[in-house]
């Protein structure tokens, strides 16, 4: 299946969802600034009902990426996510990143919420082949109720060239011919394994403090700092500060 026109998708969506042509065109217009992403055989296109958390529409590309059919998505709704995502990514998204992005969006005005695009990086695992694919997903709110609460979300997912150890989320505001990053956070697998004290020490190292300076700041012995850093290096799979900083950033 090659690239399909907006008209093709509008015809399908009118039969399958509650989205209308103006809302779909508005959604697709959001991505002209990002890169004019097309709907084609290599991208999953979906419409999600935020009240029921069920998919109103998913195109056939979902099968090649996940091993699940559109029918599977309709039957399972959001319950399909732990089945199609790498477990570590799913856990980081649901326990940490999604709540943060959701809380952030609630602080925005209704006008801003109608113009934001969520950009999320995570990995999918094909249920048959076991192949892991790094994905990037763009989504935005496409319909609101009378209280200006979002009730429909529309999104595009496709394979990303940016391979991450963990997950990443960005919230962008699109206005006229420009975009502004309002929120950005990356969560690394290894960083999640660090203790509170180890995270504090990592932050000091990133800021350029020496081991002695860190010990003085924390009022502990230099030996204690040496032990903490040894454990940090082991968990992060690095052997020096420069490698640690690169991995954290």
What does this entry look like structurally?
- The chain is α+β, with helices and mostly antiparallel strands and 249 residues long.
- It folds into 2 domains: 6-187, PAS domain (Beta-Lactamase), CATH 3.30.450; 194-248, Winged helix-like DNA-binding domain superfamily/Winged helix DNA-binding domain (Arc Repressor Mutant, subunit A, Orthogonal Bundle).
- The chain is built from 12 helices and 7 strands.
- The protein has helices at residues 6-16, 21-29, 61-66, 70-76, 81-84, 87-106, 110-113, 189-193, 196-206, 211-218, 222-236, 241-248; strands at 43-49, 54-58, 116-125, 132-144, 150-159, 166-175, 178-188.
- A 7-stranded antiparallel β-sheet has the order 2-1-5-4-3-6-7, sandwiched between helices.
- A hairpin with a 6-residue loop joins strand 3 and strand 4 (132-144).
- It starts with 5 loop residues before the first helix and ends with a helix.
- 24% of the residues are buried.
- Residues 1-6 and 33-38 have low confidence and may be disordered.
